[in-house]
Amino acid sequence: MPVTQSGAVLFFQLVNRRYGHASTVPTSNKGFEEWGRILGDEVMAAALLDRLLHRCHIVNIRGNSYRMRRHAELSARCAWSLSTIRLPLR
After folding, report:
1. What's the predicted TM-score (pTM) here?
2. Cβ(42)–Cβ(36) under 8 Å?
3. pLDDT for position 71
């Protein structure tokens, strides 16, 4: 979902002020190539990524969602429970 122009500018200003002074740990489920479209400004996105990626460590996590693991278990149990219920015929 694209952010407003003022939101993108505020985010850039935050990163710019922290650059070289403090650590910043952003998380995103979007690739770097999408940031220009999301922020609505390719040039600002490039400058932002330049600051964020300078001397950084990227942790790219792939695989099934850790938060959703219980939902698969619950879904399987519910499906089994529903299949064992016998409704009276009318």
Report:
1. 0.67
2. yes
3. 74
